[in-house]
Amino acid sequence: MIAHVIDRLRAQCGPLAINANGDAGRFEAFGLCVIPDAIAPPVGPLGGVLAALEWARKNDPDAPCVLIASCDTPFLPVELCDSLYAAQFREEADISCAASSDRLHPLCALWSTALVEPLREAASEADVRQAHAFMLSRRTAFVDFSGAEMDPFFNINEPADLARAERWLKTE
Question: In the prediction, which pLDDT does 129 show?
Answer without folding.
Answer: 57
